[in-house]
Write a structure and sequence with these properties.
Elements: E1 30-34, E2 50-53, H1 57-61, H2 69-77, E3 84-89, H3 96-104, H4 119-123, E4 129-131, E5 141-150, E6 158-164, E7 172-178, E8 181-189, E9 198-204, E10 210-217, H5 221-233, E11 236-240, H6 246-256, E12 264-267, E13 271-276, E14 282-287, H7 289-304, E15 321-322, H8 336-342, E16 347-349, E17 353-355, H9 369-386, H10 396-416, E18 419-422, H11 433-437, E19 447-449, H12 466-478
Parallel strand pairs: 1-3, 1-4, 4-11, 11-12
Antiparallel strand pairs: 2-3, 5-10, 6-9, 7-8, 13-14, 13-15, 16-17, 18-19
Length: about 475
């Protein structure tokens, strides 16, 4: 071909490109976030993800015995699996609120749970399951309302300063000025950790404005941070409820429902394990459920070959019961397990079986955790598969190969039963000439991930025709004794 560079002799050319195989990454690595006070600082530096496996006894021993991390690892191993784990150790703080702040960390500095965004760079592995045992069940007290008491006069601008006793993060608000008065306030930051009185000071170029404030429980900030990190990593955070009452659990879950709640799997109550405490005394100890639940996620992933199935209906191997009994009756609606799950809180029935596949999404399309994890797998696997064509010439053949790659992968997911069906098409209206000139290609890929069977309904009613069968049987049994009509 004259269009190619000249050559005298024989040479080999890559004549074309074929569709690529899509490789789904691992979604079963469990990230554990917590304290380990006497850990080896060299092996487990603070705010630094470290990968270990459950059979690396020397590294596990280097975590020591104190803190949330050592018993969490024991609980995972007790479920009979040997998973990959990312250990993220945070510093030990004196107060509960300061400890919560350490677990959350700083997004820009990538400390606390935000350090998990560095996991791939430091370990080569992204966590697919995130757990911060013992830190997600509280609902810290924050600013709930801020309303005018006296609106004052002569204002063109005003500033409100809020000081709340005990607050780790002080609330922040803005004053609304209209017609020379402070007519209202907008809460910009509810703060958290309020334990006492709230003082409001209004300053500006007017006089006399005052306000009244009330505090109330807010969404757990550790769970919210886990959801944000899980969204970035396309993972799932498993979060413990308050482990008090069902009313508390439902209220806690309601506060966490959000657009990114699809990345959270809530569980309540806590579990009980027979193990040694930090002092080496063996007894029945109450432990967060999230760690053992994470192990069931990883266990099912390994048994089924991927992250597409719910962990529900598995029984725990490493627990002896739950911290409080949860009522459950087969075939009935009125029991606590159903109340919790319909309120978006997964639970444990009969002291041993995981019950529920709910996320904390406020979008019903992402209600079930298996649908979310399937979507996570699709969105994480496809970009790596089609990146081969980045930088290639914009031709119909290359566009076709991209589509064939999508088709092959989705066909396999349909065959596995984890995607109900899909279609794909090139929408000319979404691919104008101006976009294609700039190398922009858009392919539509509508698909529907497979839900679980959540509400199995069996309709029961009388069946009068059954007596025809009975009558025929009687006639056959009696033979000639049956009366014959004249």
């Amino acid at each position: 071909m004259a269009a190619l560079t000249p050559n005298h002799g024989v040479r080999f050319l890559d004549a074309g490109e074929d569709a690529r195989t899509v490789i789904v990454p691992d979604f079963s690595t469990i990230a554990l976030v917590g304290t380990a006070d006497d850990a080896d600082d060299d092996l487990f530096p603070l705010d630094t993800p470290v990968q270990i496996f459950a059979d690396e006894a020397d590294k596990i021993a280097a975590l020591g015995l104190v803190g949330e991390l050592p018993p969490a690892i024991d609980a995972i191993i007790a479920e009979g699996i040997n998973p990959s784990m990312i250990i993220l150790r945070v510093g030990k703080e004196v107060s509960a609120n300061a400890q919560m702040a350490a677990v959350i960390g700083d997004p820009s500095a990538r400390t606390g749970v935000w350090a998990l965004l560095n996991a791939k760079a430091l370990t080569g592995v992204d966590p697919g399951l995130i757990v911060a045992p013992g830190f997600t069940g509280a609902s810290p007290i924050g600013l709930a309302t801020l309303v005018p008491n006296v609106q004052g006069s002569g204002y063109t601008h005003a500033t409100v300063t809020i000081t709340a006793i005990g607050a780790v993060v002080q609330p922040k608000a803005e004053a609304i000025v209209a017609d020379g008065k402070v007519s209202g306030y907008t809460i910009k930051d509810a703060g958290y950790g309020i334990t006492g009185a709230i003082t409001i000071v209004v300053t500006g170029d007017g006089t006399l404005a005052t306000a009244n404030a009330t505090a109330a429980a807010v969404a757990n900030p550790v769970a919210l941070a886990i959801a944000a990190v899980a969204k970035r990593l396309l993972g799932i955070g498993i979060v413990d409820g308050p482990n008090t009452t069902r009313a508390d659990a439902l209220a806690w879950a309601t506060k966490l429902k959000s657009d990114i709640g699809r990345y959270l799997y809530p569980i309540d109550p806590a579990i009980r394990r027979f193990e040694e405490d930090e002092a080496g005394v063996a007894s029945l100890l109450t432990r967060p459920s999230s760690v053992s639940v994470a192990a069931l996620f990883a266990k099912r992933d390994r048994e089924r070959g991927g992250p597409y199935w719910s962990p529900e209906n598995q029984t725990f191997a490493g627990i002896v019961g739950t911290a409080r009994p949860i009522s459950y009756y087969d075939g009935e609606v009125d029991h606590e397990a159903n109340l919790l799950v319909t309120g978006k809180v997964n639970t444990i029935i009969e002291g041993k079986e995981l019950f529920g596949s709910e996320t904390l999404s406020n979008d019903t399309n992402w209600r079930f955790v298996n649908k979310v994890r399937t979507e996570n797998a699709i969105r994480k696997a496809l970009p790596a598969a089609v990146r081969k064509w980045r930088g290639e010439n914009f031709t119909a053949h290359n566009a076709l190969m991209i589509v064939k790659t999508l088709e092959t992968f989705l066909d396999e997911l349909v065959a596995l039963g984890v995607v109900v069906g899909y279609t794909r098409y090139f929408d000319r209206g979404l691919n104008p000439n101006a976009n294609m000139r700039q190398g922009i290609l858009r392919i539509e890929l509508p698909h529907e991930n497979t839900p679980i069977i959540s509400d199995l309904q069996i309709g029961m009613r009388p069946y009068l025709a059954a007596f025809d069968v009975l009558a025929a049987d009687i006639q056959q049994a009696l033979g000639s004794l049956t009366a014959v009509a004249a």
